[in-house]
C-alpha cells in the first residue's frame, strides 16, 4: 500500500513528462519522475503542506511544485489522490479546464 493513488490521466501525465524529457536525456527523465514520486510520497504524511486552491466548490485541491512541475492533488482523500501533474508554465486557463474535466 502506497498511501496514494493517481487519477488515470495523472498517470498519463507522468508518462508524457518522462517521454518528453527522455527524448533528450533518459537519465534526467528518470530523475524527474523519481523526484515527483518522492514528493507525492512525502505528501501522504503531511497532505496540507502545499499551496491550496479550489477548482470547483466541492473540490479543494493543493498544489506542490517539484522543479518545473506541479502536482495537483486532493489532500482530504484517503488514500491521497493525485489529480494531475503538469509543467508549471502551462496556461492557467488550460490547467483549470483540465482539472475541471478530472472530477474525482
Question: What attributes characterize this protein structure?
Answer:
five-stranded mixed β-sheet, alpha+beta, 104 residues, globular, YaeB-like fold, 43% helix
Tell me about this structure.
The protein has 104 residues and is an alpha+beta fold. The protein has one domain: RelE-like (YaeB-like fold, 2-Layer Sandwich). It has three helices and five strands. It has a five-stranded mixed beta sheet with strand order 1-5-4-3-2. A hairpin with a 2-residue loop joins β3 and β4. α1 runs antiparallel to α2. The radius of gyration is 13 Å and the shape is globular. It starts with a strand and ends with a helix.
Question: How would you summarize the topology of this molecule?
Answer:
Blueprint: E1 4-6, H1 8-22, H2 26-45, E2 51-56, E3 59-66, E4 69-74, E5 80-87, H3 92-101
Parallel strand pairs: 1-5
Antiparallel strand pairs: 2-3, 3-4, 4-5
Helix pairs in contact: 1-2
Task: Quickly describe the structure.
By secondary structure, this protein is α+β, with helices and mostly antiparallel strands. Helix content is 43%, strand content 30%. The chain has a single domain, classed as RelE-like (YaeB-like fold), CATH 3.30.2310.20.
Amino acid at each position: 500500500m502506497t498511501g496514494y493513488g493517481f487519477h488515470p490521466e495523472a498517470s498519463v501525465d507522468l508518462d508524457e513528462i518522462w517521454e518528453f524529457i527522455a527524448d533528450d536525456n533518459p537519465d534526467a527523465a528518470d530523475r524527474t519522475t523519481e523526484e515527483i514520486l518522492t514528493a507525492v510520497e512525502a505528501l501522504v504524511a503531511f497532505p496540507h503542506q502545499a499551496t491550496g486552491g479550489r477548482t470547483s466548490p466541492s473540490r479543494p485541491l493543493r498544489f506542490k511544485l517539484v522543479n518545473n512541475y506541479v502536482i495537483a492533488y486532493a489532500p482530504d482523500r484517503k488514500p491521497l489522490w493525485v489529480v494531475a501533474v503538469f509543467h508549471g508554465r502551462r496556461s492557467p486557463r488550460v490547467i483549470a479546464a483540465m482539472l475541471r474535466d478530472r472530477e474525482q
